Amino acid sequence: MAIDSNLLNDADPSDYPADRFQFRADSAGRPIVIRPREFLASGDPVQVRAALSAVAQELNVGSSAVDPVSLRRTVNDPETPWFRYVLTGPEDTDVLRLVQGLRQRGIPAQPNHVYFIASLSAQGTTVSAPNTFTPNTFTGQVFAPNTFTPNTFTPNTFTGGAWGGGGCCCEAGPAETVSVPVPQFGARPAEAPAADPAVAEPAGHDRLDVHVIDIASPLAAEHKANAVGELDKATIDPPGNPGKGEIDFRNTSWNVNENLDDWADPATGHGDFVRSVLRLHSGLKAPNLTLWHAAGPLGDIDDAALVSALNHAVAKSKPDCWRILNLSLCGYNDGDLSALYLADRIRTMVDDGWVIVAAAGNNASCRPAYPAALPGVVAVAALSRCVPAWFSNFGPWVDVAVRGVDVLAELPDMSQEDPGVKALKVGIGELPSNPGTKVMLQLGDFNTGWATWSGTSFAAPRVAAWIGRALADEDPAQAADSAAKRAVIASVLKRVIDNEDCDWLPYYGRLMP
């Protein structure tokens, strides 16, 4: 589907609630998205608040904090040193400066980063935010159309010897962009296949327990009991109560047009599509494959909410199985450092024998994207045929690259119960039946139950599926403890994502079909 970027609607910053997103530069001048007026810190809250008061006075920002909300790194550890703080005082209080001041006093602290499901479409129906950040907000043109061109490798993408093993081009500059959600849609309609293309269910399917943390369709009945948190609120699953989970969200205000701008929210159907890719390539069905609805309608989830969702998945997992988690979401962290709270939880899960697969992101950048760049996580880039996709992130932190362009999978018809939903706009492009003619697609056009979509979001579940099928041949009962599980997993990963029969490309890892 060809897209004329001049026809894309202009994204308005007011589409993104100011109390939910802060788009800004980090301490190194790189773009990040954080929850405004929030930070996470470890330690005695009395000491943290005393230090915070001293830092605020030194910086003359006059900020204080409400009662901290306790966070839990594991479901079995209610007494944790981590807390979430919500600031009071001036609205323009610089959270990053406060965090830096706390760190200088020896207190582990971080902003509450926001991650987005990887919504960039190869058809060009998403935009990126240019690197025009001031310390607290955007200036000038806030959103600019994506300028990626199909099958063309621009100098900014591969400068620095990405093909030859030289240095990675990670210097901040005008070409640096950060994905942000926009009120458009990345999928395009597809005809239903004559027969279900899913591979056969593996003989050892009962040995597998695969989880997807993402966003589920509000009209997909099978997901009604798989919601994690308050879906119509900015805070998903309040960190102090991570066991809330499993609520019926039919009576909430959440829908596929949260900001009421006549455009389907970009995250619509994303998690269902990811789960379908996993099903098609693994052969798994429920209850061995579960989609947890944890992100907001605009595809956003923050550090505290993501860890809470991870805790929920751990609590509901089957310890006697091989446990696999797919995270088709990513974001950038302050100073490109691992978010301490999320990194700690991921490390605990990996040590406990979880396999975690994550999308590398869609910014054509080698800047580390999280959680994919965390140690122990399998980071997946995207291919277009047998070459890197023009939108895919890359870097030494990427493990493997697989096809992520025009991926075919199921997308539920979410318009059947609500005519207003059916009329929501989803993009501008060409219908296959009328090439060359610009048309306005609507959500109701996705009525076959199938679609194609592009992004590292849909490369990651292919890898998760392959790992799952390989682990299905291994008996988890023979792995007596976590160390034994990790040894089996390491052997399987060696076979699946480090297959020496496949080509290897610096900053993309193995190139697999």
Description:
This protein has 9 helices and 25 strands. The protein has helices at about 45-60, 95-105, 155-160, 270-280, 305-315, 340-350, 420, 455-470, 480-495; strands at about 20-25, 30-40, 65, 70, 80-90, 110-115, 125-130, 145, 180, 190, 210-215, 290-295, 300, 320-325, 330, 355-360, 380-385, 385-390, 400-405, 405-410, 425-430, 440, 450-455, 505, 510. Helix 5 (about 305-315) packs parallel to helix 6 (about 340-350). It starts with about 20 loop residues before the first strand and ends with a strand. Residues about 1-15, about 120-185, about 220-225 and about 230-255 have low confidence and may be disordered.
Number of folding domains? Answer: 2
Q: What's the name of the CATH homologous superfamily of the largest domain?
A: Peptidase S8/S53 domain
What is the average per-residue confidence, as pLDDT, rounded to a whole number? 75
The CATH topology of the largest domain is given as Rossmann fold
Assembly level: single chain
* Amino- and carboxy-terminal Cα gap: 22 Å
Number of helices: 9
Shape: globular
* Contiguous uncertain segments of 5+ residues: 1-13, 119-183, 221-225, 229-253
Q: Tell me about the largest β-sheet.
A: 9 strands, mixed
Strand content: 15-25%
**Named CATH architecture of the largest domain:** 3-Layer(aba) Sandwich
How large, in whole angstroms, is the Cα Rg? 22 Å
- Per CATH, the class of the largest domain reads Alpha Beta
